[in-house]
Design brief:
With 499 residues, the chain is α+β, with helices and mostly antiparallel strands. It folds into three domains: 4-77 and 149-378, Bira Bifunctional Protein, Domain 2 (BirA Bifunctional Protein, domain 2, 2-Layer Sandwich), CATH 3.30.930.10; 85-143, Herpes Virus-1; 401-493, Anticodon-binding domain (Rossmann fold), CATH 3.40.50.800. It contains 17 helices and 27 strands. The strands form seven sheets. Strands 3, 10, 11, 12, 13, 14, 15, 16, 19 and 20 form a ten-stranded mixed β-sheet that branches. Strand 23, helix 14 (414-426) and strand 24 form a beta-alpha-beta unit. Helix 2 crosses helix 13 and helix 3 (70-76) packs across helix 12. The two termini are 30 Å apart. The structure holds adenosine-5'-triphosphate (ATP). Adenosine-5'-triphosphate binds next to strand 11, strand 16, strand 20 and helix 13.
């Protein structure tokens, strides 16, 4: 697997991702998506929405505001407890997340540790500044929310926050959605959009950013719900499972089916099993490598204040197993908190039980867009020894450019014919026209950015109306009639084999 630095360099070179504000020296934790990155990110988000909103009849979507009433963040617990522990160097001022420093230098778990205990451990084990080797100060809590002021008066009365997650906007709008759509329990509300966290030490390219995007679903059930009715549809899904018990007894993760994990009470809740498998299957359906995923249960000491059980979908990055998505059981914590702070009744009438209930959130699949973006890059990026260039084997649904169109030579009416085909296909897809350099060079350029097919116009095109179509993955080439191109492209983009 390439190192994260290699992926970052590649992304910059090809126009996927640039360091934000680069001409001013950059701004740590912020990244800008270039032309290809914007396409890839857009495709990824569209696929998520298609799978989890459009193709289901139990989930609807919203798009909430980034700045909201500060009461939302008081009720959710973010104002009081959305903190990391910060420690700085007494000499050079370098700042570290104390838990990361302990995990990286001593390979220890820090879940549930207080700042005082972290300070004691850092001193006892003589952990010093990683840059200048000087003594570290006392660890202290640091709230990760970015603040802002709403309106012209800049004092505490106008203080608000940039949302650190999209989830709370779903809870705040829960009753609106229930009353204005025809959803019935169980149902979900999905949202995609920006979230902001003033991370102490952003790192690993897009993995830990200060401005990023989330794709989240809050799934609401009746408090006496009996379990997920669709769990059988994912029962055969096999993946690596790493339960709390396995972690505490020092075992490794084990490959098993969802059915086995449920029967063995390794995963207690069928809704959790269903959503974890659904997220995993979504990644795999878009070309991710199933062997690099595992689901890991949070240790009791690691659970957030609102959660009674959480599992993360993790991916084996070059810098270790890391969280891609969290799936937490939040119970009725959020709706009850918002009832308390807003003094509004958030219960709804459930037609099946003919009673008013405050639903429970049994699952909150919450996935970072940029972390998914990295997964698809890692799993598609290969150096092809024969071709001597990178081939980005992205699933065609994700490819930023869907086809390249080239004239074989730049004369005798071939560019005009190629442009004609290009303009026609461009009505429906993002297509690239290229007449620069040798054909081999043009193929290589498209291979590198993941374009699934290339179409070349030559002299025969003018007489018989056919073109050469080349497949990115096999480099196989076939003659195809121009009139067949739209249906061929549509099949290729679904991931079907075209020859
Ligand atoms: P971590 O432990 O890695 O900080 P978290 O547990 O705080 O993550 P959640 O609050 O569960 O993360 O957020 C849901 C998802 O949002 C994460 O699984 C991740 O994909 C994404 N995410 C969270 N923080 C960041 C960040 N700083 N940069 C990029 N993505 C993030």
């Amino acid at each position: 697997m390439p190192a994260i630095e290699e992926i970052a360099t590649f992304c910059k070179r090809k126009g996927f991702v640039y360091p934000s504000s680069e001409i001013y020296g950059g701004l740590s934790g912020f990244w800008d998506f270039g032309p290809l990155g914007a396409e890839l990110k857009g495709n990824l988000k569209r696929e998520f929405w298609k799978t989890f909103v459009h193709q289901r009849d139990d989930i609807v979507g919203i798009d909430g505001s980034i700045v909201s009433h500060p009461g939302i963040w008081k009720a959710s617990g973010h104002v009081d407890s959305f903190v990391d522990v910060l420690v700085d160097c007494k000499k050079c001022g370098s700042r570290y997340r104390a838990d990361h420093l302990l995990e990286d230098t001593l390979k220890m778990h820090t879940e549930g540790m207080t700042p005082e205990k972290m300070g004691e451990t850092l001193r006892a084990r003589n952990i010093r500044c990683q840059k200048c080797k000087s003594e570290l100060g006392e660890p202290r809590r640091f709230n990760l929310m970015f603040t802002t002021n709403v309106g012209p008066i800049q004092d505490s009365s106008s203080l608000s926050y940039l949302r650190p997650e999209t989830a709370q906007l779903i809870f705040a709008n829960f009753k609106n959605v229930f009353e204005t759509t025809r959803v019935k329990l169980p149902f979900g509300i999905a949202q995609m959009g920006k979230a902001f966290r003033n991370e102490i030490s952003p790192r690993d390219f897009l993995f830990r950013m200060r401005e990023f995007e989330q794709m989240e679903i809050e799934y609401f059930i009746h408090p006496q719900d009996k379990g997920c009715p669709w769990v059988d549809s994912v029962a055969g899904t096999e993946l690596l499972v790493y339960s709390e018990g396995m972690q505490k007894s020092g075992e490794k993760e084990k490959k098993m089916s969802i059915r086995h994990a449920l029967d063995g009470v390794i995963i207690r809740n069928s809704w959790h099993a269903y959503w974890l498998a659904s997220m995993f299957n979504w990644f795999v359906s878009l070309g991710a490598n199933p062997e690099k995923f595992r689901i890991r249960q949070h240790l009791r000491e690691e659970l957030s204040h609102y959660s009674s059980d959480t599992w993360d979908l993790e991916y084996n990055f070059p810098f270790g197993w890391k969280e891609l998505a969290g799936v937490a059981d939040r119970g009725d914590f959020d709706l009850r908190q918002h009832e308390k702070f807003s003094k509004q009744d958030l219960s709804v009438f459930d037609e099946t039980s003919k009673s008013k209930v405050v639903p429970h959130v049994v699952c909150e699949p919450s996935l970072g867009v940029e972390r998914a973006f990295l997964v698809f890059l890692f799993d598609s990026y290969v150096f092809d020894e024969k071709r001597e260039n990178i081939v980005l084997r992205l699933h065609p649904k994700l490819s930023p450019v869907k086809a390249g169109v080239f004239p074989l030579v730049n004369k005798d009416g071939l560019p005009e014919k190629a442009r004609e085909i290009y303009s026609e296909l461009k009505q429906d897809y993002n297509i690239f026209y290229d007449q620069g350099g040798s054909i081999g060079r043009r193929y290589a350029r498209q291979d590198e950015i993941g374009t699934p097919i290339c179409i070349t116009v030559d002299y025969d095109t003018l007489s018989d109306g056919s073109v050469t179509v080349r497949d990115r993955d096999t480099t196989e080439q076939k003659r195809v009639k121009i009139s067949e191109l739209p249906s061929l492209l549509s099949r290729a983009l679904k991931g079907e084999r075209i020859f």
